[in-house]
């Protein structure tokens, strides 16, 4: 396998995906490539991925590498930090069976991750799952004890201009199948006119579907400037001590923002805010709700998410994966039924038409003459 192409380099895959063009090589430093990152690379139609870190560490069965391989994108894996630093954006390199050349000079090598290698490493990760699950549960319990004030009224909810009272609220997160799920519930959005809340990159998903986010919540690391400028209100998720690194970016755009210091994830505070301000129903789309989701986000537990979902209870509907409910094929018998139903009134109207009746009489007369 030989590939020669220009490269683009970034430690954050989601940032790199915004700059990649078809036919290029993506150079990343991403341990355990997650599903969302892999899909973003696939959409760019790249030739190859060079990863400085292990794409499957074996801690848990991450899905990203399989997605890349299934889309005919090979991975040159675990090339190391030195090679990552050596490769500069815009350079043209040659990759041949895991060996990396620049101007004919060998600068490094990595493991070729083809289908068989990915399957083998994923199987090992599944076998290690119990160890990681045990650690994850312990961390979740420990953090739940520390963060229980988050749902017991000890965390102050900031004042907001958005009116949530007695309305449906749709919280869109950049998670698994978020684009497909959003397209599937289009009729719900048109009918109920919910408050549209984009969690970081979820705001861009709303824009792609033709909707303007009412609120953007997040640390502002993966949402575009376009989405920030169009949103009606911005909530910057800050650390518990009040530090809000994402606030500067918003202010540099000349925009105002509400700062919300809180533990947990941005989607947690988005749902908690909607609940505290009297939302009738909260619909979470693309949300992170299981161990794999949280490990892919680099989190060791899901305490805040567990606590928030425990509090908002029956007001929450999780629409994650809803598109899978509508993937059944339309059966031929239903197609014929629709055709017959559509033709039947046309036949009746035609039969009652004087012109058609005259034509039928002429045909009957002709048949009698020929007998």
From TrEMBL:
Thiamin pyrophosphokinase catalytic domain: residues covered: 193-233
Residue ranges of domain SteA-like C-terminal in the record: 320-368
Regions crossing the membrane: 334-353
UniProt cross-references to InterPro entries, sorted A to Z: Put_SteA-like (IPR047795), SteA-like_C (IPR022215), TPK_catalytic (IPR007371)
Alphabetically ordered keywords of this record: Membrane, Transmembrane, Transmembrane helix
NCBIfam families linked to this entry: division_SteA
Protein name: SteA-like C-terminal domain-containing protein
